[in-house]
Amino acid sequence: MPGARRSLASPVVSGVLCPCGSPRAAGAAPGPGTEGGSGGSASPCGRSVCEASEQDRRLRALFQKLDVNRDGALCIHDLAVGLGRLGLHRTELDLLKIVKAGDKDLDGQLDFEEFVHYLQDHEKKLRLVFKSLDKKNDGRIDAQEIVQSLRDLGVKISEQQAEKILKRIRTGHFWGPVTYMDKNGTMTIDWNEWRDYHLLHPVENIPEIILYWKHSTIFDVGENLTVPDEFTVEERQTGMWWRHLVAGGGAGAVSRTCTAPLDRLKVLMQVHASRSNNMCIVGGFTQMIREGGPRSLWRGNGINVLKIAPESAIKFMAYEQIKRFIGTDQEMLRIHERLLAGSLAGAIAQSSIYPMEVLKTRMALRKTGQYSGMLDCAKNILSKEGMAAFYKGYIPNMLGIIPYAGIDLAVYETLKNAWLQRYAVNSADPGVFVLLACGTISSTCGQLASYPLALVRTRMQAQASVEGAPEVTMRGLFKHILKTEGAFGLYRGLAPNFMKVIPAVSISYVVYENLKMTLGVQSR
């Protein structure tokens, strides 16, 4: 009857999962601490652990209701018809997102196992969203909390409008039924009402995940080839994004300065080390100090720090423009979209500041008294070698962006999602050590994958600074190294490079957090 309140989800849907995200059997008794509770083994939410057979029966009952054509898999048509029969009306785009989210084997449909995994993963995301909205932490969402949450995201509404949202939400097509989230008319939404309403509706763009899991902005290991971070609508509209970038740039400057001796040793070993000149770490430091004193350990650091600002700014602007060109307005892009946009933005930024990369290598390799400074080095290269010298090693540098950015992003997202799935119950905040560990592991994997290209790039940049070095191409240099030094020759300098990752990540994080507070960036 018109105006009667009804749940969006039928009892079949709402009874499938426990609030903790664990599958629940029909008629499972509440656990200790709940109404009618009894002793025994309990799930994380306090309910009794479900029997496997009953759990399977319940899930299969829902799956069979949705499997309209009885072929053992759910396609978009099955979901549209099946959910419609249960009173859930979804748009075709929503249904496509559900299938894409759960389709592990990429066959365009969900089998029973994929469907179960989708429901479990989906409910964990729902709980994160519910917790982020529940500002008072009382297990309910009221009108004031909806107003505050939407304001945090840059959307201003009145409390009366928020109450209308609580009363009813019209979903699906305009001729679909009116469905209610606030089932008991209390002007609040508890977890069960929230879960029942959204269980089979795609959830994405979780601002809390974007907020806590910054990566490229925080961690600087000397190679600015990572995919740029996303920013929430709130961060964009309040101007916090540029403060994050400034804090990240300052952190990178301090981090690179602190690890500059290891970075210069890496460059020396990449260019000069060979089978006949087996340079070790202690010997390399001794040689640098003997030749130019302790200050020589920081040669090339000045230009390495100076290039942070233009490179970060160009990459961020290019990333935002490429996202618009791709045609997406999503707050959180899918991984392949982020990789595409991030790699192109990185290529644009690297192309713009690449002469500074060549200068950095030449300054790191210079001998005492060879150049009076960066400008003198640039003039010397221009007069003796021409403008083309500023783009030596450009091709291997561009080729190195994809394996570095791709593997770094893939590893970081894998670790992030694994942590979110396993440990994110009340918040998406991973804490300092988890964030540092994920950043360190992903950066190390990215560097390992792209290191041979980075070594060839450095040798090509340094060609004119090494007496008697022949002009060779990238392909010719690869062949020469493999022939004279073997595959190990492509990894010269890897030890000092890895030695600087942990201190670089740790220093950049600490400095970033302090600069963030100084600039007035607030973390929720």
Word description of this protein:
β2 and β3 (178-179) form a beta hairpin. α11 (240-258) runs antiparallel to α22 (501-518), α12 (260-272) packs across α13 and α15 packs antiparallel against α16. It contains 22 helices and 4 strands. It has 524 residues and is mainly α. The chain has helices at 11-14, 52-66, 76-85, 92-102, 112-133, 143-152, 159-167, 191-198, 207-212, 233-237, 240-258, 260-272, 281-292, 301-306, 308-326, 335-365, 374-385, 394-423, 432-461, 474-484, 494-499, 501-518, and strands spanning 140-142, 169-170, 178-179, 188-190. The strands form 2 sheets. A two-stranded antiparallel sheet has the order 1-4. The two termini are 43 Å apart.
Topology overview:
Blueprint: H1 11-14, H2 52-66, H3 76-85, H4 92-102, H5 112-133, E1 140-142, H6 143-152, H7 159-167, E2 169-170, E3 178-179, E4 188-190, H8 191-198, H9 207-212, H10 233-237, H11 240-258, H12 260-272, H13 281-292, H14 301-306, H15 308-326, H16 335-365, H17 374-385, H18 394-423, H19 432-461, H20 474-484, H21 494-499, H22 501-518
Helix pairs in contact: 5-8, 6-7, 11-15, 11-22, 12-13, 15-16, 16-18, 18-19, 19-22
GO molecular function, one term: calcium ion binding
Protein name: Solute carrier family 25 member 25
Domain EF-hand: 54-89, 121-156
